[in-house]
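Fold this sequence, please.
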Amino acid sequence: MKSALDDMNNIKSLTDLVSIANKFDRIGAAEKNQWLPYYYSAYCYILMTTKEADVAKWDEYLNIADINIGKSEKLEANMVEILALRGFSSMMRINVDPSVRGQEYATKSVGYLQQASQLDDQNPRVILMMAQMQYGTAQFFGSDTAPICNQFKKAVELFDQENSDSDSILPSWGKPQAQSMVKNCEG
């Protein structure tokens, strides 16, 4: 598991993501009572949408991600991380066709993220995903994004405080995205 996580932190291409997702799928098949392999496989499939130029393939990736999120959900009682990942998956579905999907998937994404926030309002991934939803909505409607930028800063602070145990296999993704959004806000 740790080896697959190390590989996930060095993704350079869509092919890398497919290979790593397959590793997590094999681990999940061998460790049927563990939620993290399915969780990370789902995360990889969500990330595939950021590397795939053909938007028509995104739903295929996100459908697989959602199946794996469901498997993870059945095995884990602490739903914060899973709800954050569901919110991320729904957010990426918006980008397939924002004018058609925006309202439906924005509502779903925000709903998942609000549930997660009620469970843990200091989870940096939840704050990051919610801020990204709010930022995108503000941009779409031409609203001021400055107040939302403070949420990205808060997420970075919480990522800095998060346990940085290099041997941990618990979710820790998101800090580079939060840092990038802070730079985007300042630029």
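The chain has a mean pLDDT of 94. The domain at 79-187 is CATH 1.25.40.10 (Serine Threonine Protein Phosphatase 5, Tetratricopeptide repeat).
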